[in-house]
Amino acid sequence: MSSPSVSSSVVQALASSSKGRLQYDREWNFSKANTLKTFHECAAEPKLSSPLFRTVSSKWKDRSYRRPQSRESSLSGDENDDSDYDAVSSSCDSDDEQSNGFPGPYHALDQSLEAGKTEVSIRHHEQEGEKKIQEKVDKRRQQFREKSQTFEAAAMRECASRTTAYRQAEQALCLDLAEEMRRISLECEEKRVEAERSRQQKRTERIDFLKQGEAKRHEIAQEERRREEEAQRRREAIIRIKSNHHNILHLAAEAKHLLTQCEHKSHLDESAEQLVKDIERKAEKTKQLVTEAEATEFLVPLVQNTETAETESKTAIDTLKQLIGKAALKAKKAAEEEKAKKEEEVRKKKEAEEKLKQQKQASRELDAKLPAHLKDCISPSAHALYFRLQKKQQEIAKRCESITAQGDAQSKKKKFDLQKAVSVPVNAISSQSAAHLRDKVSRLSDLLNGKTVEVSGAKINVGVHKDGSLFCLDYLAKKLVLQGSQQVSSNHESAFPFAAVTVGLWEQFPELGELLLAHFHSTCPYTVPVYIPKTQGQSSNEHYKALGYRVNEEDGTVESDDKYEKRMSGIIRLYAAIIQSTPPRGVGKAHPHGIEHGWTWLSRLVNLSPRSNITATMLYDFLEVAGHDLMKTYKKQFQKLLVLICKEFYPKIEAVTSESKRGPVTRLKLFLETCIKSGKIPEPKGRLSPSFWTRQATPPPSFDDYPGY
User: What whole-number distance in Å separates Cα of residue 495 and Cα of residue 486?
Assistant: First the structure.
């Protein structure tokens, strides 16, 4: 190997040569190390001669070495390759300068060229250079390819990353947009709902307003119609009142004319003149009602009064015509019967004397027992029964004094328990079912038979006292009669369930029936019937008590007649319900105090002189309750009795009744006339028929459901 100075001289010689003065492509990628190596190899060869050097130079000149242009080199932009190329160029330039004036390594080269070996070495060197250059190019291409793949992978990853980020951003944006759209949609929906609600509310308010207006108009129209109808009814009522008054005036004139034109006044009944006077009084009264109708607003009672007066006047006219007709018949038959009467008079006189003798004998026997002041107050048979029952009740009350008398707390509790054992089932009596009434009869009969009964959680037995059974019998009788004055007087239909239970117990305990009648007689004397007179030395309050009035012991005030008559009405209705009730144990069972006692009561009543108001009230209430069964049992005989009451007994009642208290009398008259005309008496409301006891019903409730007694 040559020293560095030789290399430098060679370079200088080359630089000064024509080859060294050529322009090289600086873009050719040629490393400094390879250049130096090449020149070192060349330096080892013999020195070329001048002609050979010119040949090599011309070859180098013709073969312009340039760095291969490729996509890899143009894209890589490797600054190291450019620097190597610059170093080679500068080295060659310096060698040319040395060759111009100084000897160098090219001297040895010229010598080797001259020997014929230089051309082969240079070709070999060129091939090696090309090969290395190709390897570098391939290597650069490979690096470029790898870098390109790396860059492409990085770009792909970046693109994928950016695509993912974009998609995520796009998705987030879409979600935000969707959320915003949903929010806007909800707001729109809420606004729409609110608007719809507002429209609906306004519509509802408008409808309500229209309805209120319509209701107001309807109310005003109704009020106008009501006023028109009221005015029309008032006009019609006044017209009816005037028409009734005019009809009554016409009837009064007709009645007076009939009485004046009657040819047989001697045979005419005395009540005919009274009928004419009654019609005239009604005409005068209706005249006052016409005047009163012009000033009052309540016309219904006036219309009813005038219609009633007209009906009664027509009835009176019919009765008057019947009386006149009967008078004519009597006058016609009088002459015919006069002769026969005289012929029969002797025979009848004898028979009458004999019959009268027998009647006087029977009457003397009864009158001997009846006090004088009671002659027209009670029948002899009723008097005997009345005093017998009162005496028995007093005896039982005396025996029970040990229970009723005030004693210690234990005695009071025993008395209270016995009263409760009776009161609770009695207060629970109602017509809800047959089983319910049978249950009450069973509980009370168990108590009276000495069995232990449970009432409100307490076990009670009449055996707690020796006279407990008698005390319960008497208290039960008193309690049942009390239901008449309290319950039945307010609710007439309630008489029938109480009557059914009473009859069911009366069948088992006959002594209860006698005590019941005794309490009936003492509480309501008209169940006997008896009109208790005021005795000598008896105070007014004592007499009122005997009649059944309630008298305040503290201030001595007596209850009003209306309240008294209402209580008596309830009691007589209960008594009438008892005599016609069907026994609860079966239709075939004999009644302990049956309908025959109703006939007896009526017979006794009509044989006594009536009293004002009370007689008409008692008779009407009794017939309304028991009349249906009496008519069903006695048929034509009872119809005859009704006719007798209407023709003979009613005028007596009317005669003793003042004008201001004609309500009960008029009601009785209308009832009698209706029943006689129809030939039947309607069944009373609430009556328990025989089929009532065969109906199926739910079990009755416990006594605990009725805490009061």
Answer: 11
Terminal Cα distance for the chain, rounded: 156
Q: What element of type H or E holds 76? A: helix 71-76
For 44-53, give one letter per residue: b (16+ CB within 10 A) or e.
Answer: ebbbbbeebb
Cα 31 to Cα 82: distance, rounded to the nearest angstrom: 8
Q: Which residues pair with 453 in a beta bridge?
A: 460
User: Is residue 540 classed as helix, strand or coil in its secondary structure?
Assistant: helix
Per the rule left: phi > 0, alpha: psi between -120 and 50, beta: everything else, 458 is: beta
Q: Are residues 549 and 620 in the same domain?
A: no
Q: What are phi and psi of 541, to 5 degrees?
A: -65, -35
Which residue range forms the structural domain that includes residue 583? 393-591
Residue 657 shares a structural domain with residue 618? yes
- Residue 388 inside a domain? The answer is no
Pairing of strands 458-460, 453-455: antiparallel
Residues 472, 462: contact at Cβ < 8 Å? yes
Answering whether pTM is above 0.70, one says: no
- Walking along the chain (709 residues) 10 residues at a time, the average pLDDT comes out as 55 73 57 56 50 42 42 40 42 43 46 54 82 88 86 84 84 86 88 88 88 87 86 82 84 83 76 83 83 75 83 86 82 76 72 66 62 79 87 90 75 86 92 88 91 87 86 93 92 93 91 94 93 87 90 88 93 95 66 91 92 92 94 91 92 89 90 92 88 58 37
Residue 379, token pair as written in the block: 């029948």
Same domain, 552 and 616: no
Same domain, 630 and 561: no
- Does residue 421 share a domain with residue 568? yes
CB 297 within 8 A of CB 231: no
Cβ distance 44 to 120 under 8 Å? no
